[in-house]
Amino acid sequence: MEMIVLIKQVPEIGEAKIDPETGTLNRKGIPLTINPIDLNAIELAIQIKEEHGGRIRVLIMGPES
Questions:
Q1: Structural domain harbouring 10
Q2: Which of 17, 41, 52, 58 sees the fewest Cβ atoms within 10 Å?
Q3: Is the pTM of this model over 0.85?
């Protein structure tokens, strides 16, 4: 069995700031982390692998950094 887990980089909670001119997220100087909900998906994939074997692949979306 092969599982694919999709995850996304997001700004640390409480660190995100919106640029007032553009209305978009200003990512400069803000530490990134894995979306907390995506951590649940990774954990579930690990549990399934431990029980049934297989392989896990993780695809990540986020800025180039």
A1: 2-61
A2: 52
A3: no
Q: How many domains does the chain have?
A: 1
Task: Tell me the per-residue pLDDT of 24-41, one tens digit each, with 9 for 90 and over.
Answer: 887 778 888 888 899 999
Taking alpha carbons only, the member of 17, 16, 18, 32 closest to residue 65 is 32
Token output for 20: 């007032």
Query: What is the full DSSP assignment across 3-59?
Result: EEEEEEEEEPTTT-EE-TTT-SEE-TTPPEEE-HHHHHHHHHHHHHHHHH--EEEEE
Rounded Cα–Cα distance for residues 6 and 58 (Å): 6
